[in-house]
Methyltransferase domain-containing protein (Haloarcula vallismortis), 471 residues
Amino acid sequence: MNQDTRQQIRENAQYLRNVRPLDPEELQEYVEGQPHPAVVKQVLREEAFDLGIVEQDDGTFVPAPEGRLSVDFGGVDRFPDRYEQQVMDLLTEWGGLEWYDGERGDELRERIRDIKERYLQGQPVEYDELTALGYAVYHLPDYYAVAKYVLADLAADGLLPSQLRVLDVGAGVGGPALALRDLLPDDALLDYHAVEPSAAADVLEELLEDSGQNVRCEIHRALAEEFEPTGADAAEYDLIIFGNVLSELDDAAATLYRYVEALADDGTLLALAPADRNTAIQLRTVEREVADGGPATVYGPTVRLWPHQSPDSESWSFDRKSDIEVPTMQQRLDDPADGTGEFVNTDVQFAYSVLRTDGKRMHDVTPDRGIHAPMAEAENYVTDRVNFLGVKLSHDLAEREGANPLYLLGDGSQQVDHFAVLTEASILNEDLRTADYGDLLSFENALVLWNDDEEAYNVVVDGETVVDRAR
């Protein structure tokens, strides 16, 4: 098919899209040479995002919905069977029907052990076919769950459009891609681009093969540092994802700087990291380099409530959701290893950062100095009772049963970590315990103490303290 034919199909579709449903059998009559309706349909599918049209079940095309994306989400209980079967099909191609047993099973288990050890030591990982399969077995289920939770929150906050152009940097074996595809309603339009140079792209390509109508996928086999997200012909992206890849980049902040420039004016950059101490703290460090000096600002969860203030605390901050069911493929791999759980990974714990360039924040609140004390000045009110606003940045961190509940707080100005310690629960302060990760809380009459052992401030919440969710 020549470019002239494609252009004629585009022009006719553009003209008729608001008049009536686009029927490929009708459109062919307006195109020189009358190409086969199947050819017309393929062009409409390929050009759907630029034309703003979606395909219906009867094969016709209508204008895509405009406005914000609305999703139906109730949490993640398990990794979808269809994706697990696709992964096990790949494992069967690699190692036979009993890929989890014998020499092949031992080889895969040893590679997963090596991946985990290298990760803990901060060493690079070689992404060959076996490593990609190891990631798919061990990491894909929880990465899928993590991405689905965060993406659903972005949609609920109105940050994602119904016609969504996405760039997934370091896409790996496909956690964010599959989660996003499953979240979208049938009439949404997705133009998905993945940047992944390794053998993981082969797994991703297989998993995305049957993406269905109204989803266009393209995989760019390039390094994140070398891929050019901007340029004369480059699109602006509504969402750019860095999923569990920042720790693998030589200069993560510089790379993020480049990609921020590829965001649409109301676009969002989402960075995800595992919840372990090193990667979660590194995420906050990179966030501060990119956001507190421009060009982006933090939407959440670590909102800068005080104007012209930036945090300098350690901030090991991460969210946690309910575990998912043990995937069959993980159980099969784990059983020959005496069922110790070494190859089972069902925890859904993650650090994340949401950046934007339009200044929008998750909590559009500015504290009043006449009422609220900034955490940056905590040394001035140690042993005093004060009022302040703070974002809840952890679940209960108490390390032993029966200990006072403990929560990390932040207001975007803190130079040292602040922890709320619930010493006396009451109906007046129950919001501290029941608030979700990332919620904004108002503290009234809280006692501030210095914790010399932890080199942090304790915000003591007792019977005299009132804690409310701030609106």
The chain has a mean pLDDT of 94. The domain at 116-275+318-356 is CATH 3.40.50.150 (Rossmann fold).
